[in-house]
Amino acid sequence: MNDFIFENSTKIFFGKGCVKEHLACLTKDYGDTVMLAYGGGSIKRSGVYDVVTAALKQAGKHIVEFSGIMANPTYAKVLEGAKLAKENHVGLILGVGGGSVMDCCKAVSIAARYDGDVWTDFWENRGTIDFEPLPVGVIVTLSGTGSECNGEGVITNEELKVKTGRDYPKCNPRFSMLDPTYTYSVPKYQLASSSFDILSHIMEIYFSGPDEDNVSDDISEALMRNVIRNLRVAIQNPEDYTARGNLMWDSAMAENRIIKLGKRLDFQCHQMEHQLGAYTNCTHGAGLAVLHPVYYRHIYKEGLAKFKRFAVDVWGISAEGKTDEEIALAGIDALADFIVEIGMPVTLRELGVDESTDLKAIADSCTIVTGSYKKLTHEEILDIFKECF
Ligand code: NZQ
Ligand code: ZN
């Protein structure tokens, strides 16, 4: 295990009714004005909006609405939110939604406290800015990204065609409210996509050294099995509280830094998906579902023992009568079969990427990570994209 320092400042409220019970009291320390941030309107259709606004009114808050946060939030939307927050002397940004809303809120919390070029000074040249962002609290309606429990805000700069994030601990939400019933209304495709995102986060951590006995790998295997089992249940019965609750906590566990401790981390697939997203605006988890099996078939030989362990311990594949390579490949096949089973796309074409897309430009724009079993080149990334097409 590598050395680490651990901190996670987010206070979690988990359970049915937690918003109604705790929100009014929680907001009391953050001034008179709350910026209520949300997406395209799912919170109005589900009734969550009414519960939240009632609690804020009960607490005597003035509410400034910041709505229309799109999936894969843009830098332009961040600047719009920052202007609104500054003009209204907002004391708390309350994000209600999925990863896009939460990420946008964190980015706004930085931009609202900075007068310079925040893209250059925060996202591009990391380390330039160090100050307290505006406080953010979140109410999760879609779990998967883990944004509810970390400091990362993934933002797309449309002009530069760059999608990037940064886990800035001061952007950890002050509180996160996780009511599994709030996720009942998530459509099946989005449920599968977001849950695959959880699985992807865990795999990106698991498939990287060091590989000697370590607690992260053991927890990761339990989490992966939990995601697989509960996603199957939630697809069959969207209102299964146990399944939704498990997935909600899996999401936070995958990205609250705990299983990352002591590991080098891969995240090459995430790098590739983010740039694919910057060029095509694809759905994050679905993009990862297309990329992962192909990427793993490119790198498994360099991490053979771990891929073998994945096959046996996560997918229950029998090692009997098989070579190490056959076992490792059977595990990747099981992952690919699961992707089909949950209704995720398996090609870029199915993801909505068309022939005119410049795959070379996307490949060239990807960052090459250092923590993977095999350090890719931009040519190999292009090969993977072509194979996925
Ligand atoms: O906008 P509304 O109307 O709310 O609809 C949303 C959106 O259309 C809908 N939705 C959310 N909750 C719902 C619901 N529909 C019905 N019922 C509900 N209860 O779901 C759609 C997708 O929402 P979005 O927030 O975009 O999805 P997700 O949570 O997957 O977030 C994706 C974004 O997070 C980033 C991704 O790159 C992407 O930009 N990520 C953030 C990370 C982080 N902060 O740590 C890490 C991840 O790897 C990821 O990069
Ligand atoms: Zn992700």
Question: Can you describe what's shown?
Answer:
The mean pLDDT is 97. The protein is of the alpha/beta class and 389 residues long. It starts with 10 loop residues before the first strand and ends with a helix. The chain is built from 16 helices and 8 strands. The protein has 2 domains: 11-182, Rossmann fold (3-Layer(aba) Sandwich), CATH 3.40.50.1970; 190-388, Dehydroquinate synthase-like - alpha domain (Dehydroquinate synthase-like, alpha domain), CATH 1.20.1090. The protein has a 6-stranded parallel β-sheet, sandwiched between helices. The structure holds 5,6-dihydroxy-NADP and zinc ion. 5,6-dihydroxy-NADP binds at residues 39-43, 46, 71-72, 97-101, 103, 141-142, 144-147, 150, 152, 154, 165, 182-183, 185-186, 190, 194, 197, 255, 270, 284-285. Zinc ion binds at residues 145, 197, 200-201, 270, 284.
First CA to last CA: what distance?
A: 38 Å
Q: How would you characterize the largest beta sheet?
A: 6 strands, parallel
- Per DSSP, the total helix count is 16
**What is the topology, as strand order, of the major beta sheet?**
1-8-5-4-2-3
Per the CATH scheme, the topology name of the largest domain is Dehydroquinate synthase-like, alpha domain
Query: What's the overall geometry?
Result: globular
The proportion of residues in beta strands is 5-15%
Give me the secondary-structure topology.
Layout (H helix, E strand, L loop, with lengths): L10 E4 L3 H9 L6 E6 L3 H5 L1 H11 L3 E5 L8 H13 L4 E6 L1 H13 L6 H7 L11 E5 L14 E3 L4 E3 L10 E4 L9 H19 L8 H22 L4 H15 L12 H13 L3 H16 L4 H10 L10 H18 L6 H4 L7 H7 L12 H11 L1
Parallel strand pairs: 1-8, 2-3, 2-4, 4-5, 5-8
Antiparallel strand pairs: 6-7
Helix pairs in contact: 1-3, 4-5, 7-8, 7-9, 7-11, 8-9, 10-11, 10-15, 11-13, 11-16, 12-13, 15-16
Bound molecules: 5,6-dihydroxy-NADP and zinc ion.
